[in-house]
Amino acid sequence: MIGRAAELQQLEDALAAASSGRPSLAFVAGDSGVGKTRLVSELLRRAEAAGAEILTGDAVELGEGELPYAALTSALRGLARDGHPALDTLHPRDRAELARLLPGLAGAAPSDDGSDRPAQGRLFEAVLGLLDRLGSEAPVVLVLEDLHWADPSTRAFVAFLARSLCRERVLVVLTYRLDELHRRHPLRPLLAEIERDPAVHRITLEALSRDELAAALEDILGEPPDDGLVDRLYARSEGNPLFTEELLAAGVDGRGALPVTLRDALMVRIEQLDASTEDVLRVLAVGQRVDHGLLGEISGMDRGALVAALREAVASHLVVAQADDRYTFRHALLREVVADDLLPGERTELHRAFAAALERRAGEGPDGAQIAAGVAHHYAAAGDQRDALRASVRAATAAESVHAFGEAAALFERALELWDRVPDAAEVAGLDQVALLHRAGDAFIASGDRKRPTGLLRAALEMVDEEAEPRRAAALLERLAMAHWRAGRAREALDTAGHALALVDDGDPTPERATIYTWFAKTRMLQGRYRDAVTAARQAIDDAEATGNRSALSGALNGMGISLAAQGAVDEGTAALRRAIEIARDQGRPRELESAQVNLADSLHLAGRDREALDVARAARDEAPGRGDHGVWLDVTIAELLIELGDWDEAERLLPDQSRRFVGNESIFVEIKRAEMALGRGRHDAAAAHLALLAEPVAASGESQWHGGYGALLAELRRRQGDLDGARAAVDEALDRIEFCTEDASRLARVSAEAVTVEADRAQRGRDLGDDAEVTRALGDIEAYVMRVEAAAEVSGLPVEAAWLANARADAARAAGEPSAELWREAADAWAAIERPYRVALARWREAEAYVAADDRETAAPLAAEGLAIARRLGAGWLEGEVEGLVARARLRLDPDADGGEAEENGAGDEADEDPFGLTPRERQVLALVAKGATNRQIGAQLYMAEKTASVHVSRILAKLDVRSRTQAAAVAHRLGLAD
């Protein structure tokens, strides 16, 4: 290696990190011929010598969106061919998914679970699971070359890896040409998104310097080159290694005329070959990666002539024989030069010959999708519009079968472009134009495109007479409603679905009507419109049972189950969900199965039956395949339940690593739980960061579950910061979004109860400051919030809402200046009954505070001790500080055995022994702010404590330091380093 030491070291460092469980992606970029493949080859040589598992594949230039997963399939094919042991350890569902990429995989048969839209995710999870299994034995290096030619599905896989790699021992190396990336190249947005990640390495190869080129020439020639040769070659090649090699290989010694361009230099090489070898190269330039039999068939050569031509091409370093017995050019530029030199008629005939030959093979091998894509490409390149239309539809269907929806969409669009140019298009394509538009729109929806499906589906609808074909129009409208929903246009989606329903709502049940009612049931459920959801679901169930639409039946039971449970009919709702689970399991629909399992756990959770919910979620996670599509959702669901049940350490372990990135609802769910965990721990900066990430996606969502959770957490954070107006704004915005369009009692109760807490703080602060207007304002608003909680509790009849109501009533009494220990005891008991220890600790703290206000310190002490013990067991840092502040302010005597060793009266634990003045860690934090001149209010805002608590801490610090003023305390702190 010459001139690439630093770049090679970067890749080796990345491999070392991957070997220790820190996976990453490395992009190697550079112009054509600059040495990307050479650099990667050296890395692979060293990695293989060190025992790493090597997987390599390269993209093929067949045009945008045609050959699905070309590079990935090439990289993994050898594992299936050789029967790698890691494949035997995979879950059968993962093997079935991998069989879509590797049809020769022994013992695996792809199965359709009826839910195509998330299917690509399952395939990607299966590949990631395989990489993880391979990495358990040795680090894995996955190389995908020529990413600038990659198909949409391969790009989607790279994006998936970038956000999903976590602890796998995997290094992914991707190469691409800088000189191919025009302004609108589809790779650009992917690179812009991924390369910002600090875990992603970007290595850009520059041309060699003159000295490096001289060293390379010495290596090639076997002796030091003279300066004149170096100067001439450097001036002409500009340091490009491939150009330099080709100039020398063409016999240029620097004394004669040099070719003007690299392409001229490459043609000099090719023109020196035997005529039969040139003929083979022309065939190979059109076919790109071709096996021996196909080369012979297209070229028309006999076996002896073909072997001789291939031997010369390989010996001349123009062609390489790959591990899968296919031939390809050593460098893409060589292929491009030969292809560009073809005469128009010659190129057309070769494309037509390849199309016909591949079509004859269509039923022979396992690579159906790739063969079909090749047939479509070659017919289109040959200008044969009739056969290109037919082949494009077949290739799109084959691409759908391997979840390559981006390629399917592109192929359907090509078919649409050809439609008007083929006289009997419907007969050729095997479907009419409406059906083609429908399938194209569906493929774009499945690929995640938010814009294109709408136009295609509307075009299809314009061709359908709703009166003559109501069922067909309804099916198109249901797809259009889905496109609107996914684009965030909920109102348009509901109107469109309503129009679809109106077309089929009269008369006998149909599968289309069952599907539309199921769509309504699910969307209304997500919006919190539970009564509407149940009504739609019951109709969907009747129609689905009458027409045998099992997918609609499972979905309708799912939507109805959680809607019933949320309204208090828990037993009926969970029964429906268990039936949905049975149907999905019997039908082999893993996505629907896990969705129903998650919703069953959520229904039990909303009912306060968290232990049962945890058993359901854990059983579902055990049943899911290795890295199942819902694995993360189930993990976060389990973490959510563990947070409520008080096992915060295990919950934090289950939450996905911060390095993993998610999209859509999965991203919102993960970030909300990360924020809740950080807030509970008292890591307020981290909580603020997570909530900041949520602001935009939650605002764009129409689901009450996100508005409720986000609004309550944001209000609590701002309340702790002392920003009561900001906290009030957070709860009001959340209520505005969910209150007038849902029956989501659970979220309404939580957010409204948080609003009561905020206003109770406002009233308390107003009284402390003598601000009567502030007190009046708070008391004037609290009644309405309490009434909201009462209404929610009455609607649901569930113990969770009853606990929130007890909380709200106790806070309302606190706001009125009449803190009630009895009301707080009722709240604590309500939370204890459903086993939510953090809420119990909060209520015990307030209960103790109420007794202190009544001057009953003896009764307050054990309650404070109980709250403190729970806070410490959970690791609830903020709550621990608040209870300690109450203990210090009220001079409570705590039983050392009751709170884990708290010292009497002063509230100092064993940690105080580490400080010469007996300062606790919390007091050290306060002292640091005192030393900076902070007021009590500023200290409270900075450390998320009440101003009164800050005042108590400052008084205790002055006493311990034996000083009389804050200035003297600051001087002592600076002199002795106590404020560090």
Describe the protein in words.
- It is a single chain.
- With 980 residues, this protein is mostly helical.
- Among the domains are: 5-204, P-loop containing nucleotide triphosphate hydrolases (Rossmann fold, 3-Layer(aba) Sandwich), CATH 3.40.50.300; 210-261, no CATH class; 273-342, Arc Repressor Mutant, subunit A (Orthogonal Bundle); 820-907; 908-980, Arc Repressor Mutant, subunit A.
- Helices cover 68% and strands 4% of the residues.
- A five-stranded parallel beta sheet has the order 2-3-4-1-5, with helices on both faces.
- The protein is globular and about 105 Å long.
- Residues 109-117, 254-258, 626-630 and 899-914 have low confidence and may be disordered.
